[in-house]
Each structure stands twice: as structure tokens, then as C-alpha cells.
């Protein structure tokens, strides 16, 4: 069997490079890309660095995704890429030019303004890591450390809400409620922590779970998507929420942003 050669996307930036890398990763998800890796070069400052990276890309047969706000580096990237036959994608350039052409203003040309290394940035990164670590009740210790704890039955938007709130710098954990599983001792009201119950209309939840089963290739007749099971779970969850005396949001046909806005208002009022 022929072994496929590893292919490389070079992400280059005069700041951190997160924007170009995010675009590259989003692109990879659209392809069978197990043999493609991303190699990131951040905080580029000199022309020699640009020349060396383009030469490397030419040697490996990769291409470049870049966010360079310094005009000299951006122009050199274009020139070197053309000279060596390397495809280079300017992630921010066209958007910045459209802004100039439309509004008649000019960029500050300061690398890293999108992700300024201030306290808010690090708080947001910490919150995102927290949401991933304590998603779906993986570790009950997260309920003690969280600012917001989301509880509800399966498929009531707990995970996407946790991620959305984390991007606002809010440490969020979540727990799926099931009648067969005892509540962890760590899940109880405490100062500085907001527990929020998420619920949904039974018929809407039935539709979502049925589609989920289809996606997984499972029969729609499974108990997970039966009206009786859904009614049982929702009644149990309501009892838990009432016992915790926590606010409840019906997320039926409600956008994630709208639900998050309600929670943020409760958290900071």
C-alpha cells in the first residue's frame, strides 16, 4: 500500500496567528484531512523569516494562510509566494481593503489587536478550557469552581451554551439530568455561583432526539426518543430544579445567544 506523504498548511502571523489557524482548521473539517497538519509561525517581524517560511512551504509542497498587518511583510509574502510558486491566502487583507475602500479609514497596523494579551483575553481562554474540561458532568469538581452551572435533560443545549458563555469569559459547567443517576454532592447552591435549569417542550425535544438517533444510525424506536421516556425525564428534571430553587429557562425555539443573554443578565445583576 502506498503511504501518503504528510501535507502541511503553514499559518503565519505577525501576532499570535489564531485567526489564520482557525480558518485553516475550519477548512480542514470539510475534507478527509488526516494526512494534513498545520504548522504555525507567530510573531513574525523580519523579512528573513518570511523568505525562510515560503522556501520551506515550496520544499514540502504546502500552502500558506497568513494574517500580516504590516504592509511590508504582507507585500513580501505575496512576492516570495509568487516567485516560488507557493499558494498563499491572505486571510485579513481583503477585509481590511474593503474597509478602506468603503469607509475611507486606514488600519492601525498593530499586530495582535484582535487578541490583545490583556486580562480579558486570558480570562476568556481559561473559561474555554474550563468549559471543555467540565462538559457533560465529566468531573463534579467543576461545579464548585464554576460561575454558572447548567442542568437539564439530554439535548437541551447545555454544551453549546457552555461554550458560548465561555467565550464571554464565564466559567461554565453543565450536567445532564437522568432519573437513574444520583446528583453529585457538589451540585448545590453556593455564593457566587448561578445554577440554571434548561427545559424544553416535550414534542420539540422528541423531534430533536429522533433526528439525533438518525444521525447515529440508530432506530427511532429507541427509548431515548420515546414520548414516555421524555415525559419521565422532564418531570424528574423539574423536580431537581425546584429542589435547588434555581431559575429555569424554556429553550424551545430560543436562540443560544438569547438564552445566554438572559443568563448573563442574571449573573451580573
Question: Care to describe what's here?
Answer:
It comes from Paenibacillus harenae. ADP binds at residues 152-159. Its EC number is 2.7.11.32, 2.7.4.27. Bifunctional serine/threonine kinase and phosphorylase involved in the regulation of the pyruvate, phosphate dikinase (PPDK) by catalyzing its phosphorylation/dephosphorylation. The chain is built from 10 helices and 8 strands. The protein has a 4-stranded parallel β-sheet with strand order 2-1-3-4, sandwiched between helices. Strands 6-5-7-8 form a 4-stranded parallel β-sheet, sandwiched between helices. With 269 residues, it is of the alpha/beta class. α2 runs parallel beside α3 and α8 crosses α9. The protein has helices at residues 18-28, 47-60, 71-84, 93-103, 119-133, 141-145, 158-166, 202-215, 227-244, 256-268; strands at residues 7-13, 36-41, 63-67, 88-90, 148-152, 172-176, 194-199, 248-250. The chain is 46% helix and 15% strand. The longest helix is centred in the last third of the chain and has 18 residues, at 227-244.
Amino acid at each position: 500500500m502506498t503511504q501518503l506523504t504528510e501535507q502541511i498548511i503553514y499559518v503565519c502571523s505577525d501576532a499570535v496567528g489564531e485567526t489564520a489557524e482557525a480558518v485553516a482548521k475550519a477548512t480542514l473539517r470539510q475534507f478527509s484531512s488526516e494526512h494534513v497538519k498545520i504548522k504555525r509561525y507567530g510573531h513574525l517581524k523580519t523579512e528573513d523569516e518570511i523568505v525562510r517560511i515560503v522556501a520551506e512551504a515550496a520544499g514540502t509542497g504546502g500552502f500558506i494562510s497568513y494574517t500580516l498587518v504590516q504592509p511590508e511583510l504582507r507585500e513580501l509574502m505575496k512576492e516570495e509566494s509568487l516567485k516560488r510558486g507557493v499558494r498563499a491566502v491572505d486571510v485579513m487583507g481583503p477585509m481590511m481593503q474593503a474597509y478602506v475602500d468603503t469607509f475611507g479609514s486606514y488600519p492601525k497596523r498593530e499586530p495582535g489587536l484582535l487578541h490583545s494579551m490583556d486580562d480579558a483575553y486570558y480570562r476568556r481562554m481559561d473559561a474555554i478550557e474550563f468549559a471543555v474540561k467540565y462538559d457533560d458532568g465529566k468531573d463534579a469538581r467543576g461545579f464548585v469552581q464554576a460561575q454558572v452551572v447548567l442542568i437539564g435533560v439530554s439535548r437541551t443545549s447545555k454544551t453549546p451554551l457552555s461554550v458560548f458563555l465561555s467565550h464571554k469569559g464565564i466559567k461554565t459547567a453543565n450536567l445532564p439530568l437522568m432519573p437513574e443517576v444520583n446528583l453529585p454532592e457538589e451540585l448545590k447552591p453556593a455564593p457566587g455561583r448561578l445554577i440554571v435549569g434548561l427545559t424544553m417542550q416535550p414534542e420539540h425535544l422528541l423531534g430533536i432526539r429522533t433526528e439525533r438517533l438518525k444521525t447515529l444510525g440508530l432506530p427511532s424506536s429507541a427509548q431515548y426518543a420515546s414520548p414516555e421516556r421524555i415525559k419521565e425525564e422532564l418531570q424528574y428534571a423539574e423536580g431537581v430544579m425546584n429542589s435547588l430553587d434555581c431559575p429555569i429557562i424554556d429553550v424551545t425555539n430560543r436562540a443560544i445567544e438569547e438564552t445566554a443573554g438572559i443568563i448573563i443578565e442574571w449573573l451580573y445583576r
